[in-house]
Structure formats: C-alpha cells, structure tokens
Design goal:
- The protein is mainly β.
- The protein has four domains: 215 residues, Orthogonal Bundle (Transferase(Phosphotransferase), domain 1); 167 residues, Vitelline Membrane Outer Layer Protein I, subunit A; 146 residues, Vitelline Membrane Outer Layer Protein I, subunit A (Aligned Prism), CATH 2.100.10; 145 residues, Vitelline Membrane Outer Layer Protein I, subunit A, CATH 2.100.10.30.
- It is built from seven helices and 44 strands.
- Helix 1 runs antiparallel to helix 3.
- The protein is globular and about 85 Å long.
- The two termini are 24 Å apart.
Length: 694
C-alpha cells in the first residue's frame, strides 16, 4: 500500500527501484493487467491515507507519474511533497496566486480560478489511472470520443490481450479481468469530470475498489494478490510455511487458503474413477480452526466421500498418486491419491491410471499442513503447504526441510551434516543415466561446503554455477529401476539440462513464492540411485541482475553450436525468420545492441518448404516461446515446432509439433527475449534464449 509519505528522495527506502511509473503508461509495455491494477489500487490507497489518515488532511497537489515510484515488488510510493498543503477539517477550499501542479494533471477550477480542494488530487489521480490503463496514445483520443466510445475502445484493446496473452486465462479469469478493467476506466473518467462536485471522493474510490475485490474473490480469486505467506508471530515464535507444487493438469479454477496453516486436522476426498473433490480443515498458528472446501465436484458425478481425521500425534508426511486424462479432461486430472501419515496409510483413492507422482517428507517433525489446487468437475491439480518443523521455537532456527527421495533403494545413503541456506553450484556427470552428483552450498553462518561426488565414474561432466542473483526454483527428472536416468534444474533465470537420457517414471519438485532448493541427499553406488532435496521456504528475494541472461537450451546435442554468432550483447529483437515443414528447418534473426546498432545471425540449418518472417513493431517484444522437441529421421532430438508470443499477439506454430513440449515464459512484465543461441545441422536441433529485463 502506498501509505509511506516520502518528502524527498534522500528519505526513500533503499528497496525502491526509482523506476518512474511512466514506465508502464504505454499499454504495449511490459506490465500485465494484474500488475497495473495492483499499482492503481496502491496509488488510490496512498491518496486516501493523505486525505483521510490520522494526520491533518494533506493535499499533494502535484500527483503525476514521475512522482510515483515503484519498489522491487511494484508497490507504488507517492513522492515529492514540495507543493503539498495541510488542510484542517473545516477548510473545504483555498485560493492561491502561486502556480502549482503540472499541466495535464491540473483540474479546470484551478486553471480558471486557482481554486484548490481535495478534488484537485482526484482529478490528477483520474488522469494517472487513465494513463496506466490506456497509455498516452489512447489517452490522446479521449477528447474526440464520448465516454462510452472511449470505454469500448479500451475494453476492446485489452480484451484482445486477455484472450491471446500468456499465461492463458480461464473464462472465469477473463470475466474478472474485464470487470477490473471496466471499473478502473469508468472510475478514471469520473475522476476527471470538469465539474469538481461530480468527481468522487478518494474514500468513495477506495470503497469501490474494495467492493470490486470482494466480487473478484467470488469469480476468480487467483487474480487477487495472495495473502500468504505472511504469518503472525505467536508465543512459540514465527512459523515458516513453504508452498510447493502444483502437480496435475492445467484445467479448472484456482483455489487457495487465506490464513497460513500450522497443523492439518482432517481431509475429505471425493473419488471414483478419478479424484472429484478435496476438502480439509486445519489450525493456524494461533490455534484457530479453519474449514476449507470441498473444492471440485462440480459435475453430476461427485464420487464417494472418504473422511480422514488425524489423531493428536498424527501428521501427514507423504502423498503419492497419479495424473492422467479423464472424461472431459484431456489435459489431465488427479486420478488417484494415497496419503501416508506418521501412523498409517490412507487409500489409494480413485484409479491408479496415468503418470505417477510422489511427495515424501523427510524432516523429523515436518509435515504437510494444507493445500491449494485447480478444480472444476474434478481436482485438476494440487499443491501443498509444508511446515518444516512443528516444534520450531526459535525464529532464527534453520527452517530448511527435506523432501524425497525419488529413485531406488540400492547403493549407499548420502547426506550433508550442516543445514544448507544457499546453493552455489551443482556438478552432474551423466550419459545414459546420471552417473554422479556433487554440489557446493553456504550454511546459515556463511561458511562454504562442497560435497564429494555421489556415484561412480564416467559420463560427461556438467557444472552449473549459480550467480549471486540466481537460485534453484524447480527440479525434475526421471527414474528407472534403482537409478536416476535424468535430471533437469530450473532457476529463476533459466533451465539446465536435461542431464542423462530422459526415460522412466517422471518426478518434479516446483517451488512457490520465495522458496528455493538449497541442497540434496540421496543414494548412490556406480550411478545415482535416488535423490531428494533440501528446500528453504524463506529464500531471500533477490533482484534480477541488470544485463543479459541465457535461458535453455532445449533440444538435442548434435549439430554445430551457435553460442558466439553474436559477439555484442543484444538488447532488442527486431525480426525472426523461420523455415519449416515437419520440423523447424532453420532460424535467423536480427537484433540491436545497447547503442542501437543492428546485428544479424543465421540462418542456422537448411531451408524448408515454408518460410515465415516476423517483423516486430517498435514497442513489441517477445514475452514467451513455446515449442516441441522430438525425434526426426536419423536425429534423436530436434526442434519440431516453435510458437512465439509477444505483448501484441501470437506467431505460429511453425512446424508440426511432434514430441515433448517445452516453454520459456518470462515473468509477467519483467523480462523479454532478445536473441537466440542453439545447435543446428540440416535442421534446428536445439534452441536457447537471451533475456533482458524490460
């Protein structure tokens, strides 16, 4: 909330980016609608604090984008109070001979008569809201249109982005986005009414936004900022809760809890041919009980309910199940669940059909204490909340927890003796299987530790060194009979791997919020037989470093490498040329460096039957790339299709899309793809991306 009054830049908090809000006032720039709405509401709450806070009423009198700064979480802070005035409760207006404000943000009554009231700030706020929603180009069309025509124009422009954007929104989410958009543009127009008495007060504006959020909570709560993981302190210290997952398909509507869980009390699972619904109850850190759900079961068949009441000393320490397609859900749902507690096993519920998953806890005292999910007729996907140590009593006690292992029971057990805090590097030797793994990390005292390789000799050596701003946010792989056959590491910057030959049962451990993987444990003999992870639920938020980041590559290891075709760091992508038929035959692109000089690369590969060229507009940039990797002819792994998504539209797919899907989406509004690297022979065998902050 923008409620911190800053009188000068010298008093600003150190976490401010000092990025002007003008950065987002172009509709085609980086920030998505959800971020813009969050900023709009934050500014309104800040103005409300000035007008109606515990101090005497303060009028800012120079609200404009350059006086609103964003911190690293894009929370707005109102700055520059050099023209502000204090108004008592009884003073309704003031006349001045001194020139204040900024042209374009001053109301008519001040321009004509130099009258100052609280509606001065309301007018300025309305202009800012319209600029955030529309951008300066669309705002310039406002005088030539009626209010209704202007609303329809803005609604049409944004609705195209909602329908085509990344992530792909559900129909419920689109309805919620449209409602937020309509409310904000109507509210902005009301704030810039020529007659000041027709403008709302800031209290009325904030009240309307709060009512809107209550409606969105019912329609599509996933659009609202999460209220977790902030947990109030209790007499036992502060509980650390980790959020992990999801596992399952991509359908359904998002469901989550509002109060952080501390201990799971009961579950209700509706099952038949699949898992139809899930409900549960839990205690928070203050001992208050909460009942949730059931989530799902919206179809005619709701299955049979199975109720589990956990005893006073019983904790949920493991969940396993299967994911697969089901009736009316071709993208997959949770088809079965098995729950293991410290006392017994419950289930399996549903039918053991599809790809298996396994989520075991290893911490003494650690347990699964709650859930979040995507649901509709079935439970499409779910994730878990983990309390690493129910007996934690010290706020600064290391809160890492162990999850896993995945793999077999052969070989010697390997573990670390000192709790890890931050992962520094990982070394993997692999060929057909993962031969060995070693890693280095720092502990909670800042000391550095390096493990010996766990496993045998042989294979190709791959060392991943994490930069100071990079941490491991996901981990996946495959296992065969008593061996780990492949591993893939996913950080906040890029993906590494897969290392080894992908084959066997898949597993994955995605982190959520600020959690990260900070270490490993497992079993090994001549190969890596099993692997588990240490996770830190409160990994510090690290700002992305300025400059270039490499992401990928995805695909095979054959052909010629194209790592150094561009010798100058790219800053903006200008065009992409793709030749394709069954697979992506060749790729070329042009980009500009930080000095505006243009560079060309490619074509990599050989010409195919179809050639397409994408020319990006002056304010257009690539926000995501989707594709597939699979075998083709004598090649074991090549790029079989590519699809590009920009802030303005979609291009592709190019190629027939046979094989395994991959994706390289940028974090909403923060980064863009500006170049490529990879390998090619007669076709494009692998592809990676150069990424810069927007």
């Amino acid at each position: 909330m923008a409620d911190k009054i800053q009188h000068s830049t010298d008093a600003m908090p150190t976490d401010l980016k000092f990025s002007l809000l003008e950065k987002i006032t172009d509709e085609s720039s980086g920030f998505d609608w959800c971020t813009r709405y969050k900023i709009i509401k934050g500014i309104c709450e800040g103005v409300n604090y000035l007008h109606n806070g515990p101090q005497d009423r303060i009028l800012h009198l120079d609200l404009k984008p350059s006086n609103i700064l964003l911190d690293k979480y894009n929370v707005p802070k109102i700055a520059d109070f050099g023209l502000s005035r204090l108004f008592g409760e009884t003073l309704s207006h003031h006349t001045t001979k001194r020139s204040i404000g900024t042209v374009g943000y001053m109301p008519p009554e001040y321009i004509d008569k130099c009258h100052i009231t609280e509606k001065f700030d309301i007018f300025s706020l309305g202009v800012i809201i319209i600029e955030i929603v529309t951008g300066p180009k669309e705002r310039s069309k406002r005088p030539d249109m009626s209010s209704q025509q202007f609303i329809e124009l803005v609604h049409k422009n944004w609705n195209n982005r909602f329908q085509q954007g990344i992530p792909m929104y559900t129909s419920e989410e689109v309805c919620g986005l449209q409602l937020q958009l309509k409310t904000c543009i109507e509210m902005g127009l009301q704030c810039v009414e020529a007659e000041r008495l027709k403008r709302p007060t800031i209290a009325e504006v904030v009240s309307r936004l709060n009512k809107l959020d209550a409606m969105i909570q019912k329609i599509s709560p996933s659009l609202l900022p999460p209220k977790l993981p902030v947990v109030p302190a209790s007499a036992r210290g502060q509980v650390r809760i980790a959020k992990i997952g999801q596992w399952g398909g991509i359908g359904g509507n998002y469901r989550d809890i509002e109060v952080a869980p501390c201990r799971l009390k009961s579950l209700i699972i509706g099952s038949g041919g699949a898992i139809y619904s899930i409900g549960f109850s839990y205690y928070d850190d203050n001992g208050k009980q909460h009942k949730v759900g059931p989530w799902g079961g919206h179809g005619a068949n709701k299955g049979i309910d199975h109720t589990i009441h956990l005893g006073p000393s019983e904790y949920l320490i493991e969940i396993s199940g299967t994911v697969g397609p089901f009736t009316y859900a071709p993208h997959g749902v949770i088809t079965s669940l098995t729950l293991v507690t410290t006392i017994r096993t419950y289930g399996p519920y549903g039918e053991l059909v599809g790809n298996p998953f396994h989520i075991p806890m290893q911490n003494k005292g650690g347990s699964i204490v709650g859930f979040f999910a995507r649901v509709g007729w079935y439970v499409d996907a779910f994730g878990i909340y983990v309390n690493p140590n129910l007996g934690a009593t010290q706020e600064d006690e290391p809160a890492v927890f162990k999850i896993g292992p995945w793999g077999g029971n052969r070989g010697e057990a390997h573990d670390i003796d000192v709790a890890p805090r931050r992962l520094q590097s990982v070394t993997i030797c692999s060929h057909d299987y993962v031969n060995s793994l070693a890693f280095s990390y720092s502990d909670w005292s800042g000391h550095h530790h390096t493990t010996e390789p766990w496993g045998g000799l042989g294979g190709d050596t791959h060392t991943v060194e994490f930069s100071p701003s990079e941490f491991l946010t996901g981990f996946s792989g495959t296992t065969g009979h008593n061996v780990v056959t492949s591993l893939t590491l996913i950080t906040n910057a890029r993906s590494y791997g897969p290392f080894g030959q992908v084959g066997g049962a898949p597993f994955q451990v995605p982190m959520r919020n600020n959690a990260s993987i900070v270490g490993f444990f497992g079993r090994a003999d001549q190969y890596l037989n099993a692997i588990g992870v240490y996770a830190n639920p409160e990994q510090e938020k690290i700002e992305q470093e300025d400059g270039l980041t490499k992401m990928g590559p995805w695909g095979g290891m054959g052909g010629d490498a194209h790592e150094n075709d561009i010798t100058v760091a790219p800053r903006r992508l200008k065009s992409i040329t793709i030749s394709c038929d069954v697979v992506v035959d060749s790729l070329a692109f042009t980009c500009t460096d930080q000095n505006g000089q243009q560079h060309a690369a490619g074509p990599w590969g050989e010409s195919g039957s179809r050639i397409e060229k994408i020319e990006l507009g002056p304010s257009e940039f690539v926000t995501a790339v989707y594709g597939t990797v699979g075998p083709f002819g004598n090649y074991s792994s090549v790029i079989t299709s590519l699809r590009f998504v920009t802030n303005a539209g979609k291009y592709g797919p190019f190629g027939q899309g046979i094989g395994t899907h991959f994706q390289a989406p940028m974090h909403k509004g923060s980064s863009s793809i500006v170049g490529f690297f990879g390998r090619s022979s007669s076709c494009v065998e692998s592809i990676g991306f150069y990424v810069v902050p927007v």
